[in-house]
Amino acid sequence: xxLSRFGELEAAVMERMWTYGRPVNVRAVLEDLEKDRTIAYTxxxxxxxxxxxxxxxxxxxxGRAFEYEPVASREGYTAKLxxxxxxxxxxxxxxLVHFLSDLSPSEARALRAALKIVPQDTxx
Length: 124
Hints:
Number of strands: 3
Shape: elongated
Order of helices and strands: HEHHEEHHH
Radius of gyration: 18 Å
């Protein structure tokens, strides 16, 4: 799956998809999006189809329509973006030092907690 940041409408759709926690059809997403903007059914359908083709949504036929659900979690998407950003650096250690020096105290606590969960590589 080629990774890039979502476009504005893709991000709005994915935010809702991650929130639902269950498969939904285009009409449900449309009705939710219409609370914030005027948007056409075909636009939402096209965006969801594109997200399916990009590998971010899976779908199954239910009656005459498709139901969609996310393939990856919001956290998984964020982690992939972070890895992609790190890969653009010629000096990953320096990039990590800059990243770590900019962490807020709560972010640093979250990082320490996460490091306790992830098994450490002992092949050094």
